[in-house]
Specification:
globular, two-stranded antiparallel sheet
Length: 100
């Protein structure tokens, strides 16, 4: 059985380009008046691993499969909690220490 398509208020983007967290939050909240809170999580490339410095990191992915996996997580969250909107941006490609 196919999973239902994501709601227009649930979005997934897998991209190489950096993004503006504040602009993304504004887009998510545009026209909304029901939200009581906004939670964000932004991961960054650390400058050091457990044993050595990190200059760059290469994140590879499988197009289609990665998006479906993230969409599944959003669907599960929407089924467990009353989410009004959610957006996931997952960076891929070559990232440097400090990149998000």
């Amino acid at each position: 059985m196919a999973e239902p398509a994501l709601s227009p208020r649930l979005a997934v983007s897998v991209q190489e380009a950096d993004f503006d967290v504040a602009a993304l939050q504004q887009q998510l909240l545009a026209g909304a008046q029901e939200e009581g809170a906004v939670a964000t999580f932004t991961g960054y490339v650390r400058a050091a691993g457990a044993r050595q410095a990190v200059a760059t990191m290469e994140l590879e992915y499988y197009p289609g499969m990665t998006e479906r996996s993230i969409e599944g997580i959003l669907q599960e969250a929407a089924g467990r909690w009353p989410l009004l909107a959610a957006s996931v941006v997952h960076r891929v490609g070559r990232l440097r220490a400090g990149d998000r």
